[in-house]
Queue: 2 jobs
Job 1
Amino acid sequence: MKYQKVYTAVSALCALCVLLSLFIGGTGPISIGNAPAAPAQDAEELRAVSAAAIRYMPVFSDLDSTAADRTFAIDMANADQGFVAVKARSEENVKIKILSESGAERVYNVPNIGTVAYYPLSDGDGSYTVQLLQGVVGERTDLYERVLESTGRARLLDEFQPYIRPSTYVWFSGHARCVSEAAALCAGVTDDDEKIERIRGFVIDTLRYDAALAEREDLSFIRDPDVILARGTGVCLDYAVLTAAMLRSQGIPAKVVYGEVSSAEGLHAWNMAYTASAGWQRLDTTFADQGAEQSFIDDDANYTDKGWY
């Protein structure tokens, strides 16, 4: 196929990146949203622009990250807004499994240092079972036991709720650099399709694909869009997470999708973004940065979804 040589090496590393980030290993101490701050002389201006641009509903929870009264906790009080909050403090790796009444199962890494973490309810309205899983001490690192479970029902305010707000896997806040960059790019723009094009172009122009990153980085850590920006390099998951964070900060629903591409072996990560005029459209900033034609990216036959958040 036309794209085979161009994308095979890229997709192989993307596969390793996505697999490790989503399913393999555990999380260590991480810091979400603590990338280098903007220069002092620009801080006030950036905060003002960002505050004017953000239209998402912020993630919040009654869970207290400083309280040590419970080792594990699950908060489903905000299910109608498309997310669940959890807290875990453990010396072992921790994961969250989210099961919907449709039969779908989604598994994510959870920070094990007692911070509050947020995860999307990606399967729409219905009943959900949320489980916290802790690694079993022993020689095998793939064994987990259920330590807490909670059930609840989500009646989403609209279908876009899980994809318009920050979550632990797509984190941003009002003072984040990625939010400020998106606000500056989209200042004065009212058309969401134009905003998507500007953010897409920014990510492609700003990031450089780093084939060695998958081998030298601990990929079990959850991505921070501001760290990705500061580094200026990444693999497919970095491209997709940064794109989603910037779009969501502008009120544009955006998914991070992982799955297979017909032109190469292994898993890959990309985005789906929604506008009223175009519906859901695919953005593959990684392949676009590698020279893929938009007609290839737009063709649904070339992509097979495995999951999204």
Job 2
Amino acid sequence: MAKHRAIPQGYMTVGEVAKKIGVTVRTLQYYDKEGLLSPSAESEGGRRLYTDKDLVTLHQIMSLKSLGFSLDDIKQRLIYLETPTDVANALTEQANDIRGKIEQLTASLTAIEQLKAEVLQMRTVNFKKYADIIVNLQMKNDSYYLIKRFDDDTLDHIRNQFDKEGGLNFMDRFNHLSDEIVQLQKESIPPESEKCQRIVEEYWGLIMEFTNGDMSMLLKLMEVGNIDAATNAWEERQKIVNDYLEPALQVYFSKLGVNPFGEVE
């Protein structure tokens, strides 16, 4: 009984705090050692004593830890609680962190569901292709629809031709140019117009950059680009681009006096 009377009113021992919050005594000792949460007082007998305020700070630490922050990150993010505004700010920060985590988890769930759908459409197990799809899903790259249409040789060519940054840059340019082509189609700009031919020249330059001048790769692109019935928004856009570009490319190559497609037939 004397031991219990030695604990001042309003204070808790390390064991009591551990039980209340559901952590181990060793964890609290470690947080003290790392400067995250030190006891507010010490009893006459040398026991570490905590207050309700310490419990709130501990809640901050545990919440941030559950969101994947390192202890160093948590130390920088802790809001010291002196006023009601401090507490409100701490809770606001926690709420924002949780919202961010929810967004990440939602994106991860969407990617998993999309990958599952893609995997079920493939007839053979191909972990290399699965990995490519995962990377593109993580980059929020809608062109991952292309990956399932590419054979292994084409995918190896892409891996050798582009690193992550270069691949993203290429797709940004490709998608931007495709959007311009869709706009030309909406405005009914003639294939032989100067505006159209300028964009066709740029588009063909991207194709040559992608193939690195390999005409056999051009044939594979032609096969991949042949979309009879679109199954998603990306393919719908690409079908519009293909239909509009076909006569425009004929005009372009006619002016150049070449037929690159004849070289791969």
